[in-house]
Amino acid sequence: MLSKTTSAVAITAVAPILWGTTYLTATTLLIADHPVLTATVRALPAGILLLTIGRRLPRGSWWWKSVVLGALNIGGFFAFLFIAADRLPGGVAAVVGGIQPLLVAVLASRLLAEKLTGRVVAAGIAGVTGVALIVLRAAGGLDAIGVAAALLGAVSMALGVVLTKAWSSEHPPLVVTAWQLVAGGLILAALVAVFEPLPEQPPTLTNIAGYVYLTLIGTALAYALWFRGIAALPARVPAFLGLLSPVVALSIGGLIAGETLTLTQGCGVVLVFASVAAVIGGVSGRGRRLTGIPTNPDAGSADLHK
Fold first, then answer.
1. What is the pLDDT of residues 163-176, one digit of tens each?
2. Where are the alpha helices (DSSP H) in the chain?
3. 168 vs 177: CA distance, rounded Å
4. What pTM was estimated for this model as a whole?
5. What is the overall mean pLDDT for the chain?
6. CA 264/CA 132 separation, integer angstroms
7. Torsion over CA: 52, 53, 59, 65 (sign)
8. What is the distance between the terminal CA atoms of the chain, rounded to a whole angstrom?
């Protein structure tokens, strides 16, 4: 029988695995050159769906906290993600964000009093190095704006992960997820209205299928699992699990898009797996001593099948 820690890690890992499929989806199924619109269509319907399931509106300080977290985890991150996906090959866009786990570990040590051990730092460096080795292959064709967008997305979500951990222990993860998606989706909708013209042509059936997949699977399901993991595990663990996303993106690129994996990229993938394994190994066997195991009965009983 799996321990609660192992189960939480395994369930949380599903989220970045699903996110690894979004890069190919964005570049092959969706309307091109409308990244912020794509982010809006992805986030807002997913948030409304989860809100109808959770059936709880924010109260008190959670009105402004939801806006802050929605801007960091959803609004800013999604906008940067799709800008990067529009301007970079899918695998490259995914792996540039590999700096995020190290950022989360450092921020969690300052804001959450989580211990920043040498093991975690070494794992973070290994992850960043792995990312660099993977990106190095395409260095000649990298777009500066795309790389900057991917990096800004990593910073935005790193801060969002830590603040979510700090603020949301008294609420079920599903409810917190819904609030953030709605707030972030509204921010994105405002950005579309101001900065991005609507497509001249109506969406095709292929476009609609892509948006439905991103909304239901890549967003509603993935983020519900992700924020559940943030509530149940130290903040650094979900962040390092996020490194699985670029590996999945690269794998899909090789299988479907015909992208080749070089020896350098292979070494990068090995380093990524090693960094994830090191952090997971550092928390395995601690059981309930893990920082962040929910003690609130309401939060702990939040079921993804509600």
1. 999 998 889 999 99
2. 4-19, 22-28, 35-54, 62-69, 77-87, 90-96, 100-111, 118-136, 144-167, 173-195, 205-215, 222-232, 236-241, 244-255, 263-283, 297-300
3. 10
4. 0.83
5. 84
6. 10
7. negative
8. 24
